[in-house]
């Protein structure tokens, strides 16, 4: 404050001098014109001095601003492909919803290797941290279900923020395209192998009918019946192959519906009741009153339980019963692949000949049959349990088989529950 006070003192002195000069001019002691010029100069100098030493206007305090983020969380979540944003230390700075679901990346600030352990991904991040501009690779991730991705990793500007994003990792799901290619190749290979036998039989029967049995009415009727059976077998085989192909293509995409399992089981039991009655068999269904709905696809779950009950009717002993039970599974049980998820356990038990332990690990393989001749006589294609396995995998569930030779078999399907309150039955 010393400089403004000094300026005021000087200006006060100048004013006194100006007053004296004016008085002298009026008295005629000095010439008026020079006196006026001198007064004007002194006034201008005083004004300049006042402006020069005036107190500065108070400034608003500067607000310390956070460096702007590169993108908002809402923007990231709007991207359909998994996106992970990292720094050079491989720490996760941001992640969108598809990445949380597909890769299990949930913890911000943690090392990417805690969730994604694929060596190609980690090597790409290290390369970018060392100065590479971008990296693109194709990878396969085996869990929770096998998927194929093309990932692109690139450095991004951080806008002067030392904590900002350094590396952006984007994964594009190529699973459907790759599975379509593989399924097409498998379909051709399987169809050509499995259709060879019935086609050979048909050709042989047709040649016989056109030759030695051309006038044999009894042989013609018998051969036509065999040809009809073989044609139906080929139809079932093609239908099952197509069904398996459709399931495999979409196996990596989990369903989202809430399915009433009791209604599904009742519908399947009704559809198979006539065949069961033909062997004097009964189908009993027992569901827990607090059974929750399952998270799944109604049509596919209907196919799962139709295949299991159909097998129970085929291989169960005449006059026995088929017991179907559905119970809730606690979240902390180890029955489901995902920990901490409530679920449902549906068991189908038959009283047939049972399955030897040596066969159990291979039951869900394509075209694997415990007794190939018996399976073909009963119209089996060897694909029923393979279809069940892939549908259950798509539902993020599990299939368990327990069998005792001579007593029967129990097939249990574990499914995750839909996110809703368990329903309670109300007695009428």
Furnish the topology, listing elements before pairings:
Layout: H1 2-27, H2 32-52, H3 73-77, E1 83-86, E2 92-95, H4 97-103, H5 119-129, E3 134-141, E4 147-155, E5 167-173, H6 175-194, H7 196-210, H8 217-249, E6 257-259, H9 261-278, E7 282-287, E8 294-296, H10 298-315, E9 321-329, E10 343-349, H11 372-377, H12 384-394, E11 398-404, E12 408-416
Parallel strand pairs: 7-9
Antiparallel strand pairs: 1-2, 1-5, 3-4, 4-5, 6-8, 9-10, 10-12, 11-12
Helix pairs in contact: 1-2, 6-8, 7-8, 8-12, 9-10, 10-12
Structural class: alpha+beta
Radius of gyration from the CA trace?
42 Å
Identify the overall geometry. Answer: elongated
Poorly predicted ranges (pLDDT <50, ≥5 residues)? 60-68, 421-428
Strand order of the largest sheet: 2-1-5-4-3
Largest sheet: 5 strands, antiparallel
Proportion of residues in extended strands: 15-25%
What is the tally of beta strands?
Answer: 12
Helical amount? 40-55%
Named CATH topology of the largest domain: Heat Shock Protein 90
Order of helices and strands: HHHEEHHEEEHHHEHEEHEEHHEE
How would you state the average pLDDT, rounded? 78
The number of helical runs is 12
CA distance, first residue to last residue: 93 Å
CATH superfamily of the largest domain: Histidine kinase-like ATPase, C-terminal domain
Q: Can you name the CATH architecture of the largest domain?
A: 2-Layer Sandwich
Number of separate structural domains: 4
Oligomer: single chain
CATH class of the largest domain: Alpha Beta
Give a written overview of the molecule:
The protein is of the alpha+beta class and 428 residues long. The protein has 4 domains: 51 residues; 101 residues, Beta-Lactamase (2-Layer Sandwich), CATH 3.30.450; 79 residues, Helix Hairpins (Orthogonal Bundle), CATH 1.10.287.130; 174 residues, 2-Layer Sandwich (Heat Shock Protein 90). It has 12 helices and 12 strands. The strands form 3 sheets. Strands 2-1-5-4-3 form a 5-stranded antiparallel β-sheet, sandwiched between helices. It has a 5-stranded mixed β-sheet with strand order 7-9-10-12-11, covered by helices on one side. β3 and β4 form a beta hairpin. α7 runs antiparallel to α8, α9 packs parallel to α10 and α10 packs antiparallel against α12. It is elongated, with a radius of gyration of 42 Å.
């Amino acid at each position: 404050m010393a400089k403004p006070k000094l300026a005021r003192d000087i200006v006060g002195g100048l004013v006194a001098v100006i007053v004296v000069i004016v008085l002298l001019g009026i008295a005629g002691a000095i010439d008026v014109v020079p006196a006026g010029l001198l007064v004007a100069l002194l006034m201008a100098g005083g004004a300049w001095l006042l402006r020069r030493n005036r107190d500065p206007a108070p400034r608003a305090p500067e607000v310390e601003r956070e460096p702007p983020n590169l993108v908002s969380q809402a923007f990231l979540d709007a991207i359909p492909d998994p996106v992970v944003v990292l720094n050079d230390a491989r720490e996760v700075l941001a992640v969108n919803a598809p990445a949380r679901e597909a890769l299990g990346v949930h913890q911000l600030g943690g090392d990417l290797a805690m969730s994604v352990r694929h060596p190609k991904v980690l090597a790409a991040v290290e390369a970018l941290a060392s100065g590479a501009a971008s990296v693109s690779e194709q990878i396969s991730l085996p869990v929770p279900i096998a998927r194929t991705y093309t990932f692109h990793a690139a450095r991004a500007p951080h806008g002067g923020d030392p904590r900002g994003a350094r590396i952006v990792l984007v994964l594009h799901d190529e699973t459907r395209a790759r599975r379509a290619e593989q399924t097409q190749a498998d379909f051709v290979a399987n169809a050509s192998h499995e259709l060879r036998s019935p086609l050979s039989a048909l050709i042989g029967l047709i040649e016989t009918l056109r030759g030695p049995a051309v006038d044999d009415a009894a042989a013609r009727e018998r051969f036509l019946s065999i040809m009809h059976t073989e044609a139906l077998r080929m139809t079932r085989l093609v239908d099952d192959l197509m069904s398996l192909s459709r399931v495999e293509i979409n196996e990596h995409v989990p369903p989202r519906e809430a399915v009433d399992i009791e209604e599904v089981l009742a519908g399947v039991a009704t559809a198979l009741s006539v065949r069961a009655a033909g062997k004097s068999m009964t189908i009993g269904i027992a569901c827990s009153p607090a059974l929750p709905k399952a998270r799944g696809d109604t049509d596919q779950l209907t196919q799962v339980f139709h295949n299991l009950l159909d097998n129970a009717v085929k291989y169960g002993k005449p006059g026995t019963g088929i017991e179907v039970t559905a119970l809730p599974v606690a979240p902390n049980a180890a029955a489901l692949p995902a920990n901490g998820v409530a679920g449902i356990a549906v068991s189908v038990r038959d009283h047939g000949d049972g399955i030897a332990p040596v066969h159990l690990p291979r039951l869900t393989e394509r075209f694997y049959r415990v007794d190939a001749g018996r399976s073909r006589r009963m119209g089996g294609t060897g694909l029923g349990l393979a279809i069940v396995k892939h549908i259950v995998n798509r539902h993020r569930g599990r299939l368990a088989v327990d069998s005792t030779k001579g007593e029967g078999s129990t097939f249990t399907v574990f499914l995750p529950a839909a996110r809703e309150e368990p329903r309670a039955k109300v007695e009428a």
